[in-house]
Design brief:
The chain folds into three domains: 7-128, no CATH class; 145-289, 3-Layer(aba) Sandwich (Rossmann fold), CATH 3.40.50; 318-418, no CATH class. The protein contains 16 helices and ten strands. The chain has helices at residues 15-23, 46-49, 59-77, 101-104, 107-118, 153-164, 179-189, 216-229, 246-250, 269-281, 297-302, 309-312, 333-345, 365-375, 382-387, 396-418, and strands at 7-12, 27-33, 41-43, 90-97, 121-128, 145-148, 169-174, 196-199, 238-241, 286-289. A five-stranded parallel β-sheet has the order 3-2-1-4-5. Helix 6 (153-164) links the parallel strand 6 and strand 7. Helix 3 (59-77) runs antiparallel to helix 8, helix 13 packs across helix 16 (396-418) and helix 14 packs across helix 16 (396-418). The chain is globular, with a radius of gyration of 21 Å.
Length: 423
């Protein structure tokens, strides 16, 4: 039997060192550099973008962002179909950091968390040579927490509710070409246009890129940790709000062929807990929190504190497959859960869906799988089903709450599907 070798990657802020790694047959990634066909890179505009924050990021937070950038780039540049099973990759990633020592002690823990996130086998090493955080004159700010703001319906509700509760969130966005305009418009509509950080870490190398992008979310969290760290007082702990409904967070498989396929596992309680333990271990005073882990999307929509959500909800962007269509596809799993949430909340869904009439798409794989999962709900052991997506909390009451949100979220899907006269 031939032993499989991992793909070796060096992520460095030095184009020279990245190029040398590439010349030796490894993948060299130039961090905080604009990539080009002959040298992969990403994050070339980030140094300037972060100058809008209240103060310079801490070194620990900046090193976490460097790791997140490197992980995301590795995920994009190592194509799954070239692995023996056309899915699971072995990735040996070495990242240059400003202060690698605290992270070196956590390499195995982070590798385990990444394996859960992307379903790959990761080997991590950290060494000196990383870029220090940018320094700039601070900006006056009254923000008291950071909130991830993707432009999706959940993040819109999260931001509206925070403001309604008297919090002063700094919105944090990864501005992709499709989601960026929605983020800007919605932030303006809720009065937070000038309380938002917008990052653009466009990766570039030679095609093809891996399309699954399971770790894209860790880049989003990297921005959030950096932004939250700039809100810290010396003795305080900054909140990073990660708003997402419990059905998507748990990511229960629709069928046996769909283990972990609803979306990424960014807000699964196991991953959030693992990442929080990592941040605590390196001394980063940032507390990640998902206030909606026990709520369905329909419940979030119905319970939003401001009814302006009824006017704005359709302008949010939740689709997982609609970028080429330049609109919501209407039939991917995130779209189906979105449509079911409007139905459950009794709010008119004015979203423009490409597959507006689902009866014409009844044989689509996502539609048929979601319908199957909804129909099987009454016959399932929901606790066992939810646990197939990843370990649930050990504490009995907390575990029960996550199981029940999977049940209620799937019931929302079932009710929505039952409202359609299928062929």
């Amino acid at each position: 039997m031939v032993a499989l070798s991992p793909t070796r990657i060096l992520a460095s802020p030095s184009p020279g060192r990245a190029a040398a790694a590439l010349a030796h047959g490894d993948i060299g990634i130039a961090l905080y550099q604009i990539g080009r066909p002959e040298l992969p890179g990403l994050g070339g505009s980030l140094m300037q973008a972060f100058s809008s924050l209240p103060r310079s990021p801490t070194i620990r937070a900046w090193d976490f962002l460097s790791i997140a950038l490197a992980v995301h780039a590795a995920d994009r540049f190592v194509v799954r179909r070239e692995s023996p099973d056309s899915w699971t990759r072995m990735i040996s990633l070495e990242v240059e950091l400003a202060e690698p020592e605290p992270w070196a002690a956590q390499a195995a823990s982070l590798a385990a968390a990444l394996r859960f996130l992307s379903s790959d086998i990761w080997y991590l090493r950290f060494r000196p040579g990383g870029a220090p955080p940018p320094t700039f004159q601070g900006n006056l700010s009254d923000r008291d927490c950071a909130c991830l703001f993707s432009g999706g319906l959940d993040s819109l509700i999260g931001a509206i509710n925070l403001a309604s509760e008297g919090r002063r969130p700094l919105l944090v966005s990864q501005a992709s070409p499709k989601e960026g305009p929605a983020q800007k418009y919605l932030a303006g509509q809720i009065g937070l246009e000038f309380a938002r950080f917008e990052g653009r870490a466009s990766e570039r190398w030679r095609q093809p890129y891996e399309p699954s992008s399971r770790t894209r979310s860790i880049l989003f969290l990297g921005y959030g940790v950096v932004a939250a760290s700039t809100l810290l007082n010396v003795k305080s702990r900054a909140d990073l709000i990660v708003p997402e409904n419990g059905l998507i967070s748990i990511n229960a498989p629709l069928t046996k062929r769909h283990i972990g396929s609803l979306s990424t596992r960014t807000t699964h309680p196991y991953f959030i807990t693992s990442l929080q333990q990592l941040l605590d271990a390196v001394g980063l005073k940032v507390r990640m929190h998902n206030p909606y882990g026990h709520r369905t999307k329909g419940e979030m929509l119905a319970e939003c504190r401001e009814r302006t959500i009824e006017r704005l909800a359709h302008a949010s962007y939740s689709c997982g497959k609609g970028k080429r269509l330049n609109q919501h596809c209407g039939r991917c799993v995130p779209c189906l859960i979105r449509r079911a949430s409007f139905h459950a909340a009794g709010i008119a869904d004015n979203t423009g869906y490409w597959a507006d009439d689902l009866r014409e798409h009844s044989t689509n794989e996502d539609v048929s799988s979601a319908r199957f999962a909804a129909e099987q709900l009454a016959h399932r052991d929901v606790a066992q089903w939810a646990a197939q997506a990843g370990p649930l909390p050990h504490e009995a009451l907390e575990r029960k709450r996550y199981v029940e949100v999977v049940r209620r979220g799937t019931e929302e899907l079932r009710a929505f599907f039952n409202s359609i006269v299928w062929p």
